[in-house]
Amino acid sequence: MWIYLLCMNVIGFFVMSVDKRKARKQQWRIPEQRIWLVAVIGGALGCTLGMYMFRHKTKHTIFVFGLPFLSIVHCSLLIYYYIILS
């Protein structure tokens, strides 16, 4: 499980990096739905870190509040799973 989450967060970080690079070059972009998909299936923290590190999607309110909120939800679920259920 930890390897999966690590991989998904690396992918989330990478997705934000690639999309920012493509935005600067005015090339084809990664769809926002795909960014959200990566975040929802475990890469929220990586997407959030990438968003702030690359200053990408920071003018979009849904990303500024949604990605950190999703990161908190994921962390809370992990804590619940490992502390409460174990």
UniProtKB/TrEMBL annotation:
InterPro entries reported for this sequence: DUF1294 (IPR010718)
Protein name as annotated: DUF1294 domain-containing protein
Keyword terms of this UniProt record: Membrane, Transmembrane, Transmembrane helix
Source organism (scientific name): Gracilibacillus marinus
Domain of life: Bacteria
Segments crossing the lipid bilayer: 35-54, 61-83
